[in-house]
Give the backbone structure.
Amino acid sequence: MNQVWLVFFFLGCIGPFSLVAVSPGTVNVGAIFTFGSINGRVARIAMKAAEDDINSDPSILGGRKLSITMHDSNFSGFLGIIGALQFMETDTVAIIGPQSAVMAHVLSHLANELHVPLLSFTALDPTLSPLQYPYFVQTAPNDLFQMTAIAEMVSYYGWADIIAVYSDDDQSRNGITALGDKLSERRCKISYKAALPPDPLANRSDVQDELVKILRMESRIIVLHTFSKTGLLVFDVARSLGMMENGFVWIASTWLSTVLDSNSTFPSNTASIQGVLTLRPHTPDSKRKRDFISRWNKLSNGSIGLNPYGLYAYDTVWMIANAMKVFLEQGNTITFSNDSKLSDLGGGTLNLAALSIFDGGKQFLKILLQTNMTGLTGPMQFDHDRSLLYPSYDIINVIEIGYRQIGYWSNYSGLSVVAPEALYGKPPNRSSSNQHLFSVLWPGGVTAKPRGWVFPENGRQLRVGIPNRVSYRDFVSTVNGTNLVQGYCIDVFLAAIKLLPYAVPYRFIPFGDGHENPSYSDLANQITRGVFDAVIGDMAIVTNRTRVVDFTQPYIESGLVVVAPVKKSNSNAWAFLRPFSPLMWGVTAIFFLVVGAVVWVLEHRINDEFRGPPKKQVVTVLWFSFSTMFFAHRENTMSTLGRLVLIIWLFVVMIVNSSYTASLTSILTVQQLSSPIKGIDTLIASNDHIGFQVGSFAQNYLNEELSIAKSRLIALGSPEEYARALANGTVAAIVDEGPYIDLFLSEHCEFSIRGQEFTKSGWGFAFPRDSPLAIDMSTAILSLSENGDLQKIHNKWLKRKVCSSQSSDSGSEQLQLQSFWGLFLICGIACFLALLIYFCMTLRQFNRYLPEDTDPSIGGSSRSRRIQTFLSFADDKVDEWKSKSKRKRELTDGYAREDESVDGSGRIQRDISQERHKSDGWLH
């Protein structure tokens, strides 16, 4: 409220006002604008036209007349305050304006106190919150939507950094803040903010100072958010500095389209702004709009062209009239009362009692916010945030003959070449594939999209840090006594930088004391401290480094591996047993016996080759089982179940036999190396010491990620130290990155890689966060990879003869049971099912026979006798049972009776033969 009391002080200082007498039948509305500005001139004509149109229809205000009193603030905040106070003395129901957000922040306090709504279509500061300023209403889309549109354009073209140039006032400053927020949501940023004096105070010297600074910066994407006088001055100075040429991108906010629409003579001078992109508030085509445009020349006498803010001025007046119509129809009256807070102040010469509160202001504001009308600008309706529904903009590309429209932006569907109103009936689609704009003619007359940044031509060379290595100097090293550097990483960098479409001056700066390899994490941190502009070398891309710098595309793969001493495994008399593990041998032997036994059971009753004395049958089972390995068994299988089991088993034998042959061939023809260390898992489970290279990220990874105690980790500086430490047992193994290990093993064949790489990474060049140079260098590295140059550089420095004896240990060559358990499981299930089916059939036959032989006089009902009888039944040959069954039927047909002295076992044998005869047809 301090601003309000300051206003009252001004009121007392200037003395009494010249007031206008207003009749009771008049609805007073004030308008505060700078009528010397483009928007002020257009707004005056449009508001006067709206006033005349409303007053020509008596039904709108019930016979009352709308009176719009206009006050010219003439770019002065003080005069704007005076105008507002004058309106508050004349029973004004609403004020259109102010034109600037600076005055809106001040006058909104006055409106809140006196309940007089402020409606502005040009003060579009996004920080004018309806919570803080409930009586301030923006009747055009505020700058938050405009900045969202610009952010989406920047993202659409794939740029990352922009420079913002703006007038240092509330509206421009807060608009740029909103732009920064929207850009960050799209992983873009404002790299520099150039603040100019508020419009129209900026002069050529102020503008030139800022543009010279910008010219020395990397980014070439410039967003200009200001007003017409300052904006045109910026473009004029930029042209003189060569900043309107090829490579630059200029995006202007809506002020530029306003100038283009309203100044009919300006398009002939568009050479200074050719290629600029700008936004224009989108207003849908309609008959009312076309009719109004046709009236405009008569209304303006050809003095100025119509722009969208003239349409918003016209609609704002109609919004007030329609709201007042509803207000009066609801039985409300236009009355004002004194503010007790002001009356109690008393004393002095301040004429505070003249200021009055609009009694119906709260109700009138509510009706205004419920507006639902269609005006010249399209639907006029507010959402819950008091923003107009469906805010949208035309995207304009300034060309030599004027300008052309390349698309639209709407808050509903983003960027599109289709008018927004045509999309409102469809579901919103903001996917990247649905964002489209027409081609653009960029500054300099080019159609190819500018890269968006250049290496600044400020005379400073790119400071490139390199590790001052004392080992593995094939990767990067300095030539003794000179400033020359060489190595694999250096050659890759030089080849990549030659592919850039611009010159990059650079100089190499070694980092390290030259006595031991430097810490690569410290080397990366030098970028954040501003010591280096880039770091190249054998630097792995790991998580903690990516938090502080950006890396290029990896130019070589790298991952941690384990190296340990190995010994040769020589062949011996028992080498033929090595293809299979002991468990595999045992399970295979058991299955040979099991399958032989199963086939014997299934064939015993019907196949003479599986019958005979027990000793002979045991030999038959063993012979049949093991002869299947060579497919040389002489015994034929006769039963269906037996053949099914044998087919499955022969398939298993074929797979096992082939695998054994292949593994044995490899063992006997390739020299094997063995070591108790199988990989990183072996080291984690042990308490052995582990070596790592000084400066490598391996130490932190082993300690922090794998929880290996630091006391077990020993730093080593060179390949010679590696070899000595492994040979004398100081360390059990070395953990280092793959490229180093490849060089090490090329000269030390007594060591070998154990297991697999347990990290996946790569080496890249490091640059500051969000550096465009990192992106361009990544593209260059990909080009080197695709054309084969990267491989040529690799062969030049890193291609070595690898020891032919290096191979995996014999233990890893053994075939384990886990590779075959599926086959054995299938075979076991087949054997089990065959035995189960056979047992059920035999038991069914036996049960069908037994009731016919029941005799109470025979004590054969005991369990042991039943089992003995079943076994005797199962052991009997089918042919014998059939013959006995036939004799029994002949005796039965002649009503012959067996002598009572015949023992029970003979009777059982005859019945068994009968049952066998019944089942013979199924078995065969």
Q: What stands out?
A: Residues 143-285+391-434 form a domain with the Rossmann fold fold (CATH 3.40.50.2300). Residues 277 and 397 are 5 Å apart (CA to CA).
